[in-house]
Design a protein that fits this description.
By secondary structure, the protein is α+β, with helices and mostly antiparallel strands. It has seven helices and seven strands. The relative contact order is 0.16.
């Protein structure tokens, strides 16, 4: 594929529906686990759209870069200072679901720049898009005065782990996220870190 037919650019509010689809995919089921049934008739991805379209909060499109090819969004990276998690309001989420994810929330490298989502449309994978999006995140982190980027990846997501290892990420901790029928991952979540 000729790289000239795609661009990496800051996300815009109008990108929110496609970004939501990809971010939901990146979560590996976590958004369905947390949001399922909270608003009847809406999927987890649909519930993500208003936050992504908004201009404030850590979930805003303003903290995302997108890969655009052939006039459509084919990849997304969403990242922000991890310390913003301390100020998140989770009161609208069921307490039992939050408790299930508690170790994930605690297992962070405070003071880092956190990559909360990276996803590329399956039809566009293995073309360097994820690496281009990661380069966009590293630049944002450095511009913001951060010396490292962190992320969580499911322990059973070996394909993503290979990408991150090739990019220089190293495991620094593991969050104990128990298996659940609606969140069927084994081994918990790995916290990875890369200096930038």
């Amino acid at each position: 594929m000729d790289h000239s037919d795609r661009i990496i650019r800051p996300a815009m509010a109008d990108d929110a529906p496609e970004m939501a689809r990809l971010i939901d995919m990146a979560g590996g089921g976590v958004y369905e686990f947390l949001l399922d049934g909270l608003v009847p008739g809406l999927t987890a991805a649909e519930m993500l759209v208003p936050g992504l379209a908004g201009s404030s909060g850590s979930f805003s499109h303003r903290h995302s870069g997108v890969a655009e090819a052939d006039g459509r969004i084919v990849g997304v990276a969403h990242a922000y200072p991890v310390d913003w998690m301390r100020a998140q309001d989770y009161t609208g989420l069921p307490p039992d679901r939050l408790a299930h994810m508690a170790d994930f929330s605690r297992t962070q490298d405070w003071g880092s720049y956190f990559l909360s989502a990276l996803a590329v449309d399956p039809d566009w994978r293995r073309r360097g898009i994820a690496r281009s999006l990661l380069a966009w995140v590293y630049k944002r982190a450095r511009t913001g005065g951060f010396d490292r980027v962190t992320l969580h990846v499911w322990a059973d997501n070996t394909e993503a782990q290979r990408l991150y290892a090739a990019e220089g990420f190293e495991e620094v901790a593991r969050a104990d996220v128990p298996w659940h029928e609606r969140l069927p991952h084994r081994g918990g979540s790995l916290l990875l870190r890369r200096r930038v």
